[in-house]
Specification:
The protein has helices at 3-16, 21-36, 41-51, 58-69, 73-85, 91-107, 110-127, 132-142, 145-148, 153-162, 166-194, 205-230, 236-254, 260-293, 296-307, 311-326, 331-348, 353-367, 375-384, 388-411, 413-423. It has 424 residues and is an all-alpha fold. The chain is globular.
């Protein structure tokens, strides 16, 4: 049996058996190597090479910045988002969308976004009389903006596998992210007026200015990070370091929401999250080495081209595969497993790797809200204490919007490629 096929089969079996993803990849890779006669020393060598990249420094730093923000700074973002939206019907849902976008400009994680923002807005929406399932759906689906708005951990993982520019990927995802945010906001406003949801209490201009003044340091965070990256002032890793330092200074000395004890706990949680991601990225290099050496990508390309010859159909099939896997597996695992397999096919049909990266990641972001393994939906349902089925039913309008954005990314390359080309 082909060594690459062994990796895929074992990875799926072990993952569904409940083994952690990094162990599943490691065991599957070593079994495939033994079968194919590869020296097992290559596992350690390739894993080290996979993690030995300066560009990956941004992962722990962005996670740290997001975790620090969750210690009180997120409340400032929610308060600031409420200023322009407070006097519209269903404003709490719109505030959830806008706050998720602002938080996502730092954290790069869907789960962190729904936990930090949804953890505060879902109870508030329920208290104001919103439907519980709609409240959970809004917070869960808004969390897609977390990784879609740069920075994104998934795009960094993709870049490490394909040696694509992280900065260009971040620029390419900006247009789909902004359009998705606008569409989500439009739907929440429409739903609010349709269901005659309550408005927030009226605030005076003086109170609004006080809120904005109090939130100004929190609002500067996404502006600084995106400005540094898009302006080409510094690398993504340097921007991540600045964001983590800025978050710590604001949280400890200005807002004073972080104590030394809280900071130590935040560092501990960040270390665990980073370790899980980095070992996954490292082992992905070892598994990709075996998959590529086994000629499986070429066999996959030949099989696909023997069935379809249209670029339109190839892109459609890729999307269907990713969407199905998104219902069953964690996002970074899908990237690690499928991207090396599909690279030859993508290159043979002239699909830009930047476009393919955004297409891949939007698919797995949508997977965050599709049962049974939709992690954002699971977290949201736990926060709101609702059933997964009821919450997903309320997610359908957001889900359809996300699919339309995905189709635009898939079949309109200019949609994602114009900004990297313009800023270059």
């Amino acid at each position: 049996m082909n060594a690459g096929v062994i990796i895929f089969v074992l990875l799926l079996v072990l993952a569904f058996a409940g083994l952690p993803i990094y162990l599943s990849i490691g065991i599957a890779t070593m079994v495939a190597m033994i079968h194919a006669g590869f020296p097992l020393e290559a596992v350690a060598q390739k894993t080290f090479l996979g993690m030995n990249s300066a560009s990956l420094l941004c992962i722990p730093l962005f996670i740290l910045a997001g975790n620090i923000m969750a210690q009180g700074i997120t409340q400032k973002l929610i308060a600031a988002a409420n200023v322009p939206l407070g006097r519209v019907r269903g404003s709490l849902a719109s505030v959830t969308v806008l706050s998720s976008a602002l938080f996502g400009a730092i954290s790069g994680s869907a789960v962190a976004t729904v936990a930090a923002v949804g953890g505060m807005t879902v109870p508030a929406m329920e208290e104001a009389g919103y439907d519980k399932n709609y409240s959970v759906a809004c917070a869960s689906c808004s969390s897609l903006l977390g990784p879609m708005i740069p920075p994104s951990i998934s795009l960094v993982v993709y870049a490490s596998l394909t040696e694509t520019s992280i900065q260009k990927l971040f620029m390419a995802t900006a247009a789909p992210a902004v359009l998705c945010m606008v569409c989500f906001l439009a739907y929440t406003l429409y739903y609010g007026y349709k269901m005659k949801l309550p408005m927030q209490p009226k605030t005076t201009t003086k109170e609004k200015l006080h809120i904005l003044k109090d939130s100004i340091w929190a609002l500067f965070m996404p502006i600084i990070v995106l400005g540094l990256i898009f302006g080409g002032i510094c690398t993504v890793s340097e921007a991540a370091a600045i964001s983590a330092l800025y978050a710590a200074i604001v949280g400890i000395f200005i807002y004073r929401t972080i104590s030394l004890k809280n900071l130590m706990e935040t560092l501990y949680e960040t270390t665990i999250s980073v370790a899980a991601i980095m070992i996954l990225v490292g082992l992905s290099k070892a598994s990709a080495y075996v998959v590529i050496s086994s000629q499986l990508p070429q066999l996959f390309m030949q099989a696909m081209t023997s069935v379809v010859s249209s670029k339109f159909m190839v892109l459609l099939i890729i999307n269907v595969i990713f969407l199905i896997l998104g219902c069953l597996m964690e996002g970074n695992c899908i990237i690690v497993m499928m991207v090396p397999l599909m690279l030859s096919l993508v290159n043979s049909f002239g699909i830009d790797l930047i476009q393919f990266g955004i297409l891949t990641c939007i698919n797995i972001y949508i997977g965050c809200i599709t049962p049974p393994v939709g992690v954002s939906l699971l977290v949201g349902a736990k926060i709101g204490n609702v059933t997964l089925g009821g919450a997903f039913k309320s997610c359908l309008p957001f889900f359809i919007i996300s699919l339309v954005i995905l189709l635009m990314v898939t079949y309109i390359p200019f949609f994602t490629l114009w900004l990297p080309g313009f800023l270059a």
